[in-house]
Amino acid sequence: MTRTEPRTGRGADTRVAIMTAAERLYAEHGLSSVSNRQIGEAAGQGNTTAVSYHFGSKATLVRAIMTRHSEHVDVIRTRYVEAAGDSTDLRDWVRCLLRPVTEHNAALGVPSWYARFAVQVMTDPLLRTLVADESLTRDSLRRTLQGLGRCLHDTVPPEIRPARAEMARHLITHTCAERERALAEATAEPGTSWERTADALEDALVGLLAAPTTRR
Amino acid sequence: MTRTEPRTGRGADTRVAIMTAAERLYAEHGLSSVSNRQIGEAAGQGNTTAVSYHFGSKATLVRAIMTRHSEHVDVIRTRYVEAAGDSTDLRDWVRCLLRPVTEHNAALGVPSWYARFAVQVMTDPLLRTLVADESLTRDSLRRTLQGLGRCLHDTVPPEIRPARAEMARHLITHTCAERERALAEATAEPGTSWERTADALEDALVGLLAAPTTRR
């Protein structure tokens, strides 16, 4: 479906330029409002077919952008997972889930667009599946979810756990996007940082995931 | 900015038709990708300026759609707030926050678009402020937030409470939008209902809001 993917040289530079432009445009305007032509122009490509030449479909482009970030997230998460070992403390596994995301966002500097781009992808009915599939191939995420599952095993009924995991995902994704937007638009409260956002999210996620269930 | 707003007769019918079409189109395609012309066409208006004639700006149209829903949410919430009285049980106030939203969504039937429309509005940098201002004029919401504040007063530090409230809002908004989408696309798990979604959210929100804070 796509051309061969050069890892170095001018082709690689063009791919990166297109991904960078697409991420920003998708984050600001939504996946459906941005054309390949606009992305090509923003990436400084004179050829109006540059995007389809290098990526084929929008799905391939979106996936390539997500993969570029998730590789970095995975490196950080692997470190957290190794530190967590066989911990049975829920907080350790919440850190494995959360901190790689906030640390990656922090590393992108200000302004960044990844967190808002991720919201667009997560709320797209088709693309979200594709991305969810990709991230589950990551050993570090699989081990994190297993760790969380073990900690909740005795307290949260099995039929409730997937809904809790989904809510945790919403909370991380949307809180990060808000933070990124506030930082980019310089509307963030003084003292706002990814570190403090992560601290607040960590406490809230522990509370959310471990909340007693009231059966009705 | 807008014309006089007829409450009855053909003008009122046209306004409702436009609001209904706009809500669906905005929910499915995002606020920025939908033109007034598309809304007019979907609402069966031959005159291409019908939307601007009846609503003036996009902000006015969006606000009118939100108000139509929030009036119903407010009626339900007022009932919950009166039942809560001067309760000091956090769960009672979480119910006041949550249940009017899920009950209103349930009352809309399947398919509905309001929950996904609300996500678009909440993630729009400009329109979100306008809507937040409007909902805070509702006495029922003000009393709910006060009730929540009283319950968290001794356990959650004051500088943490606004972030927790924001996270609660994210969780309700996005979980409802997901549920609505799954119901509309018939991809929901068997047995999915707004009632069960509300039960799961209620437990999670209590856990999130009351989570112990670890100071660093």
From TrEMBL, chains A, B:
Per the database record, which ranges form the HTH tetR-type domain? 18-65
Q: Which InterPro entries match?
A: Homeodomain-like_sf, HTH-type_TetR-like_transc_reg, HTH_TetR
Which SUPFAM superfamilies does this one have? Homeodomain-like (SSF46689)
Keywords in alphabetical order, please.
Answer: DNA-binding, Transcription, Transcription regulation
Pfam families, sorted: TetR_N
User: What's the domain of life for this entry?
Assistant: Bacteria
- The name on file for this protein is TetR/AcrR family transcriptional regulator
